[in-house]
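tool_call: predict_structure(chain=1)
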Amino acid sequence: MKAAYKASLLSAFVFPGAGQLYLKKYWRGLVIMIVFLSGAIFIVWSNIAPAFNRLDSIMVKMQSGAASLQQLAEISESPASTKSFYYDAVFYSIVCIWILAIVDAYRLGRKKDFPESKSPG
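tool_result:
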């Protein structure tokens, strides 16, 4: 399999930046991985934090003994907090980074597959 195809498939299906690491462009691959991973962690945390807050409020009401099943059901069925502008911006940014990582891995692989012939002088 050609390096361009293998690198782009690695970046597409394994992890963004994996194709760059395969092509021995370590710094570029690590930067892509770190940026993508930090965005993904933000997305996951912004989804998990409201669930933990809701669970905490349920636990407080249960421990105090002042909550009926109806009140607990209302807390658990209440809608989660609305997503912020940052959530959408980070989500679309990591999608763009993923696509750019695939294109960049393919471009670097093409350079490796077909090196430009250099003429002397």
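agent: Residues 26-64 form the longest helix (39 residues). Proceeding to next step.
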